[in-house]
Amino acid sequence: MRIIAGRNRGRTLEAPPGAATRPTADRVRQALFDMLWHAPWAGRGMIEEARVLDAFAGTGALGLEALSRGAASAYFMERDRVALGVLRANITACRETERAQILPGDATRPPRAAAACGLVFLDPPYAQELVPKAVAALTAAGWIAPGALICAELGVAETLELPGAEVLAERAHGAARVICLRAP
Predict the structure, then answer these.
(1) pTM (2 decimals)?
(2) Can you name the CATH fold of 28-182?
(3) What parts of the chain have a pLDDT lower than 70?
(4) Which end of the chain is more exposed for a tag (fewer CB within 10 A), N or C?
């Protein structure tokens, strides 16, 4: 697993052992960021200088990719202790300690927001219906800015209903499905 593009391009990211953390595959991450970079509803300006939230962060690959591509800052929310250790190591290896903040905890029960984010990545464990719960909790805590772009990775067979959110794009990549939505 590596950073695909930007100033940290090619930097290898570590992943925790076992199956508890399922990092977003390089090809899925590349497809997502290519879509964001070129979509009329997102574009380069959506990433560059953005305040990013990577909830269910795991290795931090999504938030670190955004930082590599010019995001101003990123918050990483993760509850697994082993994944938190790997996340810290990956942030250090990418030399992003100044622009990254780790928030140990559950995205479905987040702390009050330090700042609202305009770009939100959600990559929870599949088949647990965590995306709607996380979006509701993160919005209530002030993490998701009005009109923010939310990118969620789900299992290919999962459904997602977020009342008031506008679905902008949806792509399947093997066992994964990525859905990009505009927050209400």
Answers:
(1) 0.94
(2) Rossmann fold (3.40.50)
(3) 18-22
(4) C
